[in-house]
């Protein structure tokens, strides 16, 4: 196959300010710092399977995961968000190498 004309798809221009609370997440080793984060596309990660995902972000300061309500995230950002999973779980085995690296931040 030849690409006749390259596309230039970009995720929507989207930002959201959230507080790092660590709330709604699963058990984690980090303590939240309660800082305010401005999220852009690419900052959202998801955990779960099929349509039952938890969406959220990992704080660059404290490493805490905070869940973000799905309704606050554009569909495209949800769709392309990388998945993370607990090491050793069945879900973890299905992740890409990049996603496995992300999962280690938890
Ligand atoms: Zn934090």
What report would you give on this structure?
This protein has one domain (15-103). The strands form two sheets. The protein has a four-stranded mixed β-sheet. The chain has a two-stranded antiparallel sheet with strand order 1-2. The longest helix has 7 residues, at 97-103. The chain is 16% helix and 25% strand. The model has no long low-confidence stretch (mean pLDDT 88). The protein is globular, with a radius of gyration of 15 Å. It is an alpha+beta fold. The protein has helices at 75-80, 90-93, 97-103; strands spanning 15-19, 36-40, 45-49, 52-58, 65-67, 83-84. Zinc ion binds next to loops.
Topology:
Elements: E1 15-19, E2 36-40, E3 45-49, E4 52-58, E5 65-67, H1 75-80, E6 83-84, H2 90-93, H3 97-103
The structure holds zinc ion.
Largest sheet: 4 strands, mixed
* Radius of gyration computed on alpha carbons: 15 Å
Helix percent reads 10-25%
Low-confidence stretches: none
> What's the number of domains?
1
Run of helices and strands = EEEEEHEHH
Beta-strand percentage? 25-35%
Strand order of the largest sheet: 5-4-3-6
With helices defined by DSSP (H or I, 4 residues minimum), what is the helix count? 3
Mean pLDDT: 88
Bound molecules: zinc ion
- The N- and C-terminal alpha carbons lie at a distance of 40 Å
Q: Which structural class do you get from the secondary structure elements? A: alpha+beta
Shape annotation? globular
Q: Say how many strands there are.
A: 6
């Amino acid at each position: 196959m030849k690409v006749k004309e390259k596309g230039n798809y970009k995720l929507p221009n989207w930002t959201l300010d959230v507080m790092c609370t660590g709330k709604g997440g699963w058990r984690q080793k980090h303590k939240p710092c309660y800082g305010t984060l401005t999220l852009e596309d690419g900052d959202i990660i998801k955990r779960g399977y099929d349509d039952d995902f938890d969406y959220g972000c990992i704080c660059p300061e404290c490493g805490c995961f905070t869940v973000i309500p799905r309704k606050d995230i554009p569909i495209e950002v949800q769709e392309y968000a990388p998945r993370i999973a607990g090491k050793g779980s069945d879900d973890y085995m299905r992740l890409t190498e990049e996603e496995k690296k992300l999962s280690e931040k938890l």
